[in-house]
Amino acid sequence: xxxxxxLVINFIFRLFPVNEKKLLFExxxxxxxxNPLALYLYIKxxxxxxxxxxxxxxxxxxxxxLDKKDxxxxxxxKGLFHQATAKYWLKSQSTSSIIxxxxxxxxxxxxxxxxxxxxxxxxxxxxxxGYPASxxxxxxxxxxxxxxxxxxxxxxxxxxxxxxxTGVARTDIIVNRSEELKEELLKxxxxxxxxxxxxxxxxxxxxxxxxxxxxxxxxKEFGKMKxxxxxxxxxxxxxxxxxxxxxxxxxIDLSRYNDTQDILLVSDLLISDxxxxxxxxxxxxxxxxxxxxxxxxxxxxxxxxxxDIDKExxxxxxxxxEELIQLIKDESWYSKxxxxxxxxxxxxxxxxxxxxxxxxxxxxxxxxxKK
Length: 371
Description:
It is a single chain. The protein is an alpha/beta fold. The protein has two domains: 2-171 and 353-365, 3-Layer(aba) Sandwich (Rossmann fold); 176-348, CDP-glycerol glycerophosphotransferase, C-terminal domain (Rossmann fold, 3-Layer(aba) Sandwich), CATH 3.40.50. The protein has 15 helices and 13 strands. It has helices at residues 2-13, 34-46, 77-85, 122-125, 147-157, 172-175, 179-189, 219-223, 260-266, 277-282, 295-302, 309-312, 321-329, 338-348, 356-365; strands spanning 19-26, 52-57, 71-73, 86-91, 106-110, 141-144, 162-165, 197-201, 228-232, 251-253, 269-272, 288-291, 317-318. The strands form two sheets. Strands 3-2-1-4-5-6-7 form a seven-stranded parallel beta sheet, sandwiched between helices. It has a six-stranded parallel beta sheet with strand order 10-9-8-11-12-13. The chain is globular.
């Protein structure tokens, strides 16, 4: 019955022409964030080309960054109609839908990753079946930050379609940052710095985090460092922090906060592990600690990495909470990683020049993206 309903809906909506000026934006994980949000805000702010912008969201999505007139909801007639009639689909995740893309619609996959780090997809198993992953089949273009990411996507998904290297739209706000913006974001996030060092802790997910509460958080150790304010940002796919864990007053869980870039911009120090979020942070030449408490286990789980962690990490690695706290306290190591940071920026950020949104928008207007 569901299949029949889908066929009927697609038939009806195909009676309406595709609107050449309509852009459909979509993220995932109940958020409106990342590259689609950055591009959307740029187009809206500059009122470019009289585009009609539509955001597809769920009922739980924080839409405070969006123009409410542009918001439509998943699995509603209005949402399905706009999906069926928008010229461009601009997504950072591949989400399923009853609507099938038409021949004269163009899907730009605005990948959420910046650069490469952990292995993904076929590269984890080492088994390449010889055909593309199903979620790539509607992509017309994969929009990548850099050449290494484009190669990794082809290897990890079997994607054989068109790819373009443009840089990452969401990094524009980082490159064009100011102290005024930082103060605005502190108010937006509703945190008080009070002369404390702001430390963002953003671990990637482990497979068990997808279904179980996250427990491996050094919050007791964080709580003892009253001269620091810790902002925890779990991966969007993680279920969340175990509710039984009581967070100290100087530790705030921002895992459900809408846009990661806001948190990066107000942070003085980043703690991560195997996440590509670190390449966004290196754009600001700020220090990063790699807390890899489960390194050997993670290597087995992911079949290694797409970078050489002995040569390319732009910061020190540690495995115990005690080592982590010592590195947070000791700032003498900061300058030792300047060359690694420069290397990372040359590898992954060479097109992140503060004009990525402008560049992508011009490519859309000029008709660069074709079937």
